[in-house]
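Minutes, structural biology subgroup

Action item carried over from last meeting: produce the structure token record for Putative lipoprotein (Aquamicrobium defluvii). EB confirmed the sequence was re-checked against the source entry. Recorded below for completeness.
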Amino acid sequence: MLKKLILLGLVPLAGAVASTVPSLAADAVLGGEVLYRERIALPDNAVVSVELADVSRADAPAVVIGSREISPAGQVPVKFEIRFDDSAIRPNMTYALQARITVDGELWFINDTHHGVDPLAKEAQTILVKRVVRESDEALHDTDWNLTFIEGFDGLPEPAATLTIGDDGRAHGKGPCNGYFGGVKIDGDRISIGQVGATQMACEPRRMQAEHAYFQSLGKVAGYKLDGDTLTLSDADGKALLRFSR
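Output recorded by EB:
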């Protein structure tokens, strides 16, 4: 009889204990990669940030459901995984991924179009970010720079050689004799110009000497500085190799 009473007494106690155990939220994962099309290397201190947000209300700030920061970012494509509580995802709401790349707190890249997503679909996402055009970038790119100085070479021939740096990662221009082109990589205030290709026209010796010095200097370029209408290209030690005006 006592045993029966004890067992009966345990029933409501067990029920009470069970009712106080909270339900554990499921941990969902949304992954993918962040990339851009520009031929620009990221510096070592670049940071990639990705957020999953509820953007249902146009008249209110987005509500962040989960986020991930990758530091150092490395080079694109940069892989990411965002862990979030799937109970926060509600039917008939709108969700989006927002990505940005910063360097020393300065915004370099961001996705400027809506990247809608179903957070529970478990599909890998590719977020395309675009470069944020800074004032210095606008001045550097798509400007016809006229050569005014080559280190170690006096008396540049006229007309002046030119340099144009496109935002597509390529440079081109007219040397003292031949037209030329080459790839460009920009990383902050660092710049490098790949092997230069040129037409094969022959000119007077003085022009050919100037062109040889010009192309050699382009191959040694490691940094740049903009000062008003003057562009200076320098070597790895900061020594000015070439100077241009616009």
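Discussion: The mean pLDDT is 86.
Next step: EB to file the record with the rest of the batch.
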